[in-house]
Specification:
heterodimer; A: 154 residues; mainly alpha; 9 helices; B: alpha+beta; 4-stranded antiparallel sheet; 4 strands; 44% helix
Chain lengths: 154, 143
Amino acid sequence: MKKTFVVLSLALVALMSSCKKEEEAAPASLYDRLGGVTAISAVVDQFITNVAADPNMVRTFTPLLTEVGKGNTARLTALRNNLIDQIGEASGGPQKYMGKDMVTAHKGMKITDTEFNSLVADLVAALDKFKVPTTEKNELLGVLGGLKGQIVGQ
Amino acid sequence: MKKIIIKITKISAYSLLGLFSAFVVYANLEPAPMHAYVKPISMTILKIDGLETQAQANDIRQHVSEVAGVTACSANPTSRLVSITFDPDQATAASLSKFVGKLTQQPVQNASFEGVESSGPQCPVPLSYIMAFERVKYAFCFR
């Protein structure tokens, strides 16, 4: 009886330590490595300001920029919220993107390759400002770059 | 007459209570998204005709970013635009415009995008109404 108890205890300890090892071994998600929602919202804010000052982006963002000029921030808030949720979800965070799908959201906007590339450059500049490491930057750009076909030429 | 008024009042009260309960249930169907916990921002876009070099742009970006309440700033010598996002509780568009004017010693004006043609989907319901509905919804979300 005593021997069985000792064997069971040892097995339990071994099982628990192996679980711990597995937990430790699991790599942190891109979301955690980026710094969570606070860091993502800071990057999104920088990205939005980069876009707003970018001459290649004026045509695409005219409705938003015009409204901001009149003191109406509803469109800006919607864009910011969607970007936080979208980047959060794409990087493995708890956020859930609840906006329109990319094709519907960009329907009729006729976004060109040049405009899309400028947008990516603005995002890269925002990530660089916060010194996001190359690995994380490329991972994020890889995820978002996959959306190009759904955004350009709609 | 009095009985009818009491009956109508009761029915109205029960209906409102039912609608409110249904709204609370709807608000709690899903947890509030993370963006609901991020402080809202405002934005201002300034035009500075004298902004011509990257060095000037870097200088503006660096100094404006240090102002209390500013969450991000970008300056572009090609468009001669300076865009700033900020916490509306800590800064205002007017105070930031004044700060940039003093910093650059250049005339600063609010950028105008009137006349630029745009396209894309337009929602028939004003976005501000949708955002206000969202705010109320998350206020009653207890998950």
